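It is worth pausing here to work through a concrete case rather than discussing structure prediction in the abstract. The textbook approach is simple: state the sequence, then state the predicted structure, then interpret. We follow exactly that order.
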Amino acid sequence: MEQRSLIERLARHLAMSEPESWQDRVEDAASLLAILKTPDDAMREAGDDRIWQAMIDAALRERWAVAPASASGEPPGGTDEEGEISLPPHGVSGNPAEWVHVHKPREKQ
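Step two, the predicted structure:
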């Protein structure tokens, strides 16, 4: 079997009942990866959480490489970690792995 990116493997797993539509599950896979980005206590004890987060960011950047273009011609998007804010590939700086801080803080500093 050829080597596939983590996000593609997750999307294919999520589409097991309809294997030909795995590309439709790429955003679901990205959402799962976003949830996994913040390690829990047991994970922190096992290793460096900064390395883990960098690895998840790298996996998240792959979603635009494997996701198909939509019928409207719009690039595939994503959402923030909570799934509330829609993010296109160019939505946050030049780094597609950035998920949060799309608005300036309202707090006075």
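Step three, interpretation. Residues 99-105 have pLDDT under 50 and may be disordered. Residues 49-61 form the longest helix (13 residues).
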